[in-house]
Amino acid sequence: MSSPLITIVDTERVPEAAAATIEEILRDAVRRRGRASLALAGGRTPQPVYRRLAELPVPWERVSLYFGDERAVPPDDPRSNFRMVRETLLDRLPSPPEAVHRMEAERGDRDRAAEDYAVLLPEKLDLLLLGIGEDGHTASLFPGSPALGERARRVVPALAPTPPHRLTITPPVIAQARETLVIAIGAPKSAPLRCALAEAGDEHVCPARLARSGRWFLDREAAGGL
Ligand code: 6PG
């Protein structure tokens, strides 16, 4: 497995550094294949990255947007990853992409919602953005989750340590992505990063290891323990 590509910068430079690389990867995908597929991370960390990304000349008309996970809440709920992306990225674009595929995690039948989303996903995402939780989770793949053993289904319902529960992509989707990019900011992420980036480790204990061979954008506080 290839080594992680780690970029460590001052906290205030992370959004610019990560957004520039995202733009570069998307442009390369469009050059090679005519379109680009981008799956977005949720949570707080990516928000300034998305605001910066909205300022860059990304060919959004050629980008299809997906989500790596979603909470089981309506799209206008403050906890919704879709709402966060709408506010920090989509609403800031002069012409947002037409192909925005929201995960309908609020549906009563989350198994069916997972299946319906899985068929929308491309075989290989050009770029998958991920975060890392203080427990080492990524997307909504939490330590000890049965979803970590999933090899057939590409999207599954997931129980979070505290509700709302989720829909999440599974390990095969992470493995098949052409590029993964993990963003982590702040001292609370230093311990899970040590676990995720160590030479050896267990993905069931530290699910973010699933993205170990990808790109990592860290501030100095998060990288402190490396
Ligand atoms: C979510 C995310 C999740 C997130 C981590 C880190 O739905 O919350 O997909 O995997 O990336 O929990 O969250 P923060 O960026 O808020 O620390």
Principal-axis shape: globular
Q: CATH topology, anyone?
A: Rossmann fold
- Please give the alpha-carbon distance between the first and last residues: 19 Å
What CATH first level would be assigned?
A: Alpha Beta
Order of helices and strands: EHEHEEHHEEEHEHE
- Quick check: average pLDDT? 97
Helix content: 25-40%
Task: Tally the structural domains.
Answer: 1
Main attributes of the structure:
about 230 residues; Rossmann fold; six-stranded parallel sheet; three-stranded antiparallel sheet; globular; binds 6-phosphogluconic acid
General description of the model:
The structure is a single chain. By secondary structure, the protein is α/β, with parallel strands linked by helices. The protein has a single domain (about 5-225), classed as Rossmann fold (3-Layer(aba) Sandwich). Helices cover about 25% and strands about 20% of the residues. It has helices spanning about 15-35, 45-55, 80-90, 110-120, 170-175, 190-195, and strands spanning about 5-10, 35-40, 65, 70, 125-130, 155-160, 165-170, 180-185, 215-220. It has a 6-stranded parallel β-sheet, with helices on one face. The longest helix has 20 residues, at about 15-35. 6-phosphogluconic acid binds next to loops.
